[in-house]
Structure formats: structure tokens, C-alpha cells
Design goal:
Strand order of the largest sheet: 1-2
Number of helices: 3
Radius of gyration: 20 Å
Structural class: mainly alpha
Number of strands: 4
Strand content: 5-15%
Length: about 130
């Protein structure tokens, strides 16, 4: 692949562009739509998404998933991970996925502990 040749498609080839400028605008529009969905959900907080699932509300899971999708897509397109070898892509992406999942687990554990302390007073955990 030539140094200036980039794949001019997004969403796994679903949308194709004729130039890099068009692709940049397309990516901007895609990320703007995802962000707008997050903002609208954050403002209106639909009651249907307030049911708890696995210790969190559906709305929180949607925010986490959309944020990970945006981060993945930015890395994939703007950091040119799409053009790298598969082993490097896996090494970078899977490490990030593992660390993000680990961070989410830690934040949920500590947040739940702090919530219980404020709700019930002193809480002791047996680890």
C-alpha cells in the first residue's frame, strides 16, 4: 500500500467515500450522531432504561458501550490501526479493552462500596 493511500470507507465498507476530505466529514458526522444520542439520553433519561441489569441501569450500560464504540472507532480510523498488521492491532485493541473492562469493574466496586457506606453507615467487607 502506498504511503498516501488510505481505505476510504467506514462501517466495514458500508459507506464509501471518494476522497480523504469526504471521509473525514463522514467520520465527523458519524461520531456527532453517536454523541448526540448520548446527550439526548443523558438529558431525557427514559424510564424504560432505568431498570437495573448486572448492578447498573440500562442507561449506564448504553453510555459505556457507546463511549467504547467511539474510542474504538477513533483509534481504528484516525490512529490508522486499520492499516497495521493484525498482530499489532490485536495487541493494542485487546490490551485497551482489557484495561477498560478492569477500570469499569474497579469503579463499580468502589462506587458501590462508597454508596453502601453513605446509605448504611459503616460497611465491612470480607475479601
Amino acid at each position: 500500500m502506498a504511503a498516501d493511500a488510505h481505505k476510504l470507507e467506514i462501517l466495514r465498507g458500508l459507506i464509501k467515500f471518494k476522497s480523504n476530505t469526504q471521509k473525514i466529514w463522514g467520520v465527523l458526522i458519524l461520531l456527532t450522531i453517536v454523541t448526540a444520542v448520548e446527550v439526548v439520553l443523558g438529558i431525557y433519561k427514559p424510564e424504560a432504561l432505568m431498570e437495573p441489569v448486572l448492578g447498573m441501569k440500562w442507561l449506564n450500560w448504553i453510555f459505556i458501550i457507546l463511549t467504547i464504540v467511539k474510542a474504538y472507532y477513533i483509534t481504528w480510523d484516525f490512529m490508522h490501526m486499520r492499516d497495521e498488521k493484525a498482530s499489532l492491532r490485536r495487541m493494542v485493541v485487546w490490551t485497551a479493552v482489557f484495561l477498560i473492562c478492569y477500570l469499569i469493574f474497579i469503579l463499580l466496586q468502589e462506587g458501590d462500596y462508597v454508596f453502601e457506606v453513605y446509605k448504611d453507615g459503616y460497611v465491612k467487607r470480607d475479601f
